[in-house]
């Protein structure tokens, strides 16, 4: 018998996800999977209490649209969707964001057994009497080829897939202007790459697109889910949503709940042979969230730390070419910047970076190469601390030699226990994460974290939860990661007394948090609702480290619960 610590990621709302011993997160929940049928494609009512989906018998005889009650991520009371007393035959059902329109694809007209030459898109409108008779959408959308998987925006624009040749599909959009649908246009090469792209869910405000791509070079299975964000000049290059969503089999038919919290999709991950297209399709969901929002600051801003009440943010601002770096503070209202100014310590502004506030708000740490005090004349980067004095801050002092060495130290962060985590240079272009335990009022000799966290890659910028239960940090230059530097998460096993050795195998936070450029300097608000981080997403060349750094925030509705299990 031995104690095995299981780390549970608990979504606010009491839904839990298990962390496997390998350190991989099992994010995915089963929503509906009837072994006697094949179930795929889904769409939710605006209230997220009804799920519409396609279901066929296990021998693929007949195909129809069904509806069920959705509660706590489970579907019950499933029945055929009826219109005018008739079961609706078709596939790829979609409910518009306002709940007034139902779209689907079919190869025969409503209440008709006469087959059409190809799959066409239909629309039904809702009235007080229920769903109206479906009508064929116009030729601006329906062509002489197959059309599948419609998805509607707030403005009424329809995104859908059209067969191009053979088994290949591309994603198109038809704009709704002046009361009519315009001729559909194919999306660009950021989305359509010449292989099968389909099953597109468009965000109601068109801020992002989630879709399926088949057998791409970076795919994990037969079909994977990808995401692309809309910018002023078009769509970003689509990125794979990663192993937290995709499996070795089929993953497709995405739909995001109206509150933005859940991505629902189709998968055959429970099949005995998921790498083959079989009839073992079911409906699943995984936590999701809206895109990051850039805070309105100056030009080159990075590294952030918040007061407990979220009304003040401390960060660094760099001049062009990074010739100087100044400590800054900003007043926040509902996460938005309303005022910013230089941070004054003992009445003076300071050159430095990586400013972090202690959990109790009484201490402030930062890194600087403009050394002073007992470190006057040193050229390496060292960590300093200032204590709260009335409404301001006292004179900063360098931390002891148990923390500051003769090489660079970066990104300090204090925990409730007083333990200090930071980064230390280990080679010309590499850093590792260290911890200095606070014992009897003194910082002990710093120790590197274990080899699960510190690898031959660059590890830095660690946010540690105040209770030291989990850590979000940066890992850089990893082949097949999403970008130049990605955010990772690791969890502490408290059954291991050696703190430096107690951290789990890190897991990449995935495509929703990371992109093709630089992502770093994470900080999680004290209510654990928001992740603040630094990124160069506005750069025209994000893979190159340039001056397009800004501070972003996005929902992070996760907290940690530690339980133990005997085996």
TrEMBL record:
Superkingdom, natural source: Bacteria
Signal peptide from the UniProt entry: 1-20
Keyword annotations from UniProtKB, A to Z: Signal
UniProt-listed InterPro entries: 6-blade_b-propeller_TolB-like, WD40
A Pfam family of this chain: PD40
Membrane spanning stretches: none
Family under the similarity heading: Belongs to the TolB family.
Name of protein: Uncharacterized protein
């Amino acid at each position: 018998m031995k104690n095995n610590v299981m780390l549970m990621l608990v979504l606010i709302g009491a839904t839990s996800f298990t962390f496997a011993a390998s350190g991989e997160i099992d994010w995915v929940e089963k929503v509906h999977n009837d072994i006697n049928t094949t179930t795929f494609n889904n769409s939710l009512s605006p209230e997220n209490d009804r799920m519409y989906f396609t279901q066929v018998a296990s021998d693929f005889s007949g195909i129809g649209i069904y509806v069920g009650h959705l509660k706590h991520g489970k579907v019950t009371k499933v029945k055929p969707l009826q219109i005018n007393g008739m079961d609706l035959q078709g596939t790829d059902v979609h409910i518009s964001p306002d709940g007034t329109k139902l779209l689907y694809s079919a190869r025969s007209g409503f209440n008709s057994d006469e087959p059409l030459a190809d799959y066409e898109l239909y629309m039904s409108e809702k009235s007080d009497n229920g769903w109206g008779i479906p009508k064929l959408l116009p030729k601006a959308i329906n062509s002489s080829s197959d059309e599948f998987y419609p998805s509607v925006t707030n403005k009424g624009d329809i995104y859908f897939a059209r067969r191009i040749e053979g088994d290949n599909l591309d994603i198109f959009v038809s704009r709704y202007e002046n009361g009519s649908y315009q001729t559909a246009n194919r999306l660009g090469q950021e989305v359509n790459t010449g292989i099968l792209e389909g099953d597109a869910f468009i965000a109601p405000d068109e801020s992002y697109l989630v879709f399926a791509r088949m057998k791409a070079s970076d795919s994990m299975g037969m079909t994977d889910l990808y995401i692309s964000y809309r910018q002023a000049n078009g769509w970003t290059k689509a990125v794979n949503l990663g192993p937290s969503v995709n499996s070795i089999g089929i993953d497709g038919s995405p739909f995001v709940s109206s509150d933005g919290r859940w991505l629902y999709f189709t998968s055959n991950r429970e099949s005995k042979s998921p790498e083959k297209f079989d009839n073992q399709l079911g409906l699943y969901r995984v936590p999701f969230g809206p895109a990051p929002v850039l805070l309105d600051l100056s030009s080159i801003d990075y590294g952030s730390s918040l007061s407990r009440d979220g009304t003040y943010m401390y960060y660094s601002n760099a001049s062009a070419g990074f010739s100087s770096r100044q400590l800054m503070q900003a007043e926040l209202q509902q996460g938005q910047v309303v005022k910013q100014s230089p941070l004054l310590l003992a009445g003076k502004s300071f050159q430095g970076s990586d400013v972090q506030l202690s959990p109790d708000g009484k201490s402030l740490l930062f890194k600087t190469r403009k050394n002073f005090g007992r470190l006057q004349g040193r050229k390496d980067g060292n960590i300093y601390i200032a204590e709260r004095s009335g409404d301001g801050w006292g004179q900063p002092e360098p931390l002891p030699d148990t923390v500051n060495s003769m090489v660079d130290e970066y990104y300090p962060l204090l925990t409730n226990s007083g333990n200090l985590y930071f980064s230390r240079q280990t080679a010309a272009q590499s850093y590792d994460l260290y911890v200095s335990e606070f014992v009897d009022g003194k910082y002990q000799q710093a120790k590197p974290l274990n080899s699960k966290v510190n690898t031959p890659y660059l590890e830095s910028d660690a946010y540690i939860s105040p209770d030291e239960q989990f850590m979000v940090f940066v890992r850089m230059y990893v082949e097949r990661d999403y970008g130049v530097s990605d955010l990772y998460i690791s969890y502490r096993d408290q059954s291991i007394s050696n703190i430096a050795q107690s951290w789990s195998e890190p897991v990449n936070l995935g495509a929703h948090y990371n992109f093709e450029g630089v992502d770093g300097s994470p900080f999680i608000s004290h209510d654990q609702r928001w992740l603040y981080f630094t990124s160069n997403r506005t750069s025209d060349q994000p893979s190159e480290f340039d001056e397009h750094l800004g501070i972003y925030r996005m929902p992070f509705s996760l907290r940690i619960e530690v339980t133990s299990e005997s085996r």
